[in-house]
Design brief:
The protein is an alpha+beta fold. The protein has one domain. It is built from 5 helices and 7 strands; from the N terminus they run H-H-E-E-H-E-E-E-E-E-H-H. The protein has a 7-stranded antiparallel β-sheet with strand order 2-1-5-4-3-6-7, with helices on both faces. Strand 6 and strand 7 form a beta hairpin. The longest helix is centred in the last third of the chain and has 53 residues.
Length: 242
């Protein structure tokens, strides 16, 4: 892939993520997503390596990159599936940040994933907003391990009902989950259109070329830093517990 082709492919991948974000924002019920824009969208390859992202929330995208590598290996993926997770020990942030992941298949072959993470207004914590001054994780709300939210394109109603039952403002929460599902479907649709032009093999090769270029850029930047040991000191006003 020559530099011009790679640049065009990178722009199209970024546009996929941006459109996912636009769909999520416009469909969301919660002001956390609709007004505060506390969400992120990204595309990953079949191994769970981050390949493209929109300019959303850095802490979401940084942790999603690590989360996906483990999650994609432990789930039996099928076309039309979507998996929901918020466990910080599996690459999440805090419990209100819920991730919805969808596999991208073309011609029956798994080519990658789309995912979005959004901050929900309430996930069943001990205080409104699910952001209490807590000493244990479960005080923030319901902990969701990687769980199928959809199978074969059909909602797993028992899973969604269980999440809603543990939280307040069920209508708003259900609307935000629907928005996350819609955002992933938007991403899958756009990737499908992209693969029609590149072919399955061309798409996989382009993802590898894109990440290879990013790695070379990072290595080039690191080489400009003189060898040595670097430290810094930071301060935190309070731990919240007095």
């Amino acid at each position: 892939m020559n530099p011009v082709e790679l640049s065009l492919f990178a722009s199209r991948m970024e546009a996929v993520c941006e459109e996912m974000g636009a769909a999520l924002r416009r469909a969301a019920f919660s002001p956390n997503i609709r007004d505060r824009l506390d969400f992120s969208c990204a595309v990953f390859d079949a191994a769970g390596e981050l390949c493209a992202q929109a300019a959303h929330i850095p802490v979401h995208l940084g942790s999603m990159a690590y989360a996906m590598r483990g999650i994609v290996k432990t789930v039996a993926w099928g076309e039309g599936d979507m998996v929901v997770v918020n466990d910080p020990y599996l690459g999440g942030t805090h419990l209100p940040d819920v991730t919805v992941i969808a596999p991208f298949f073309a011609g029956g072959r798994l080519l990658g994933f789309v995912a979005n993470r959004a901050h929900h207004a309430n996930i069943g914590g001990h205080s409104p907003g699910s952001m209490p001054i807590s000493s244990r994780l479960e005080e923030e709300g319901g902990i969701i391990p990687p769980t199928h939210l959809l199978r074969g394109g059909c909602m797993e109603s028992g899973v969604l009902e269980g999440i809603l039952a543990a939280a307040g403002a069920a209508d708003e929460l259900a609307g935000d989950f629907a928005a996350q599902v819609s955002a992933n479907r938007t991403g899958l649709m756009r990737l499908g259109e992209l693969v029609q032009g590149t072919g399955d093999g061309g798409f996989v090769a382009a993802l590898a070329a894109l990440n290879g270029y990013a790695e070379r850029l990072a290595q080039s930047a690191l080489k400009t830093i003189p060898a040595g040991r670097y430290t810094f000191r930071d301060l935190l006003d309070d731990d919240g517990l007095g």
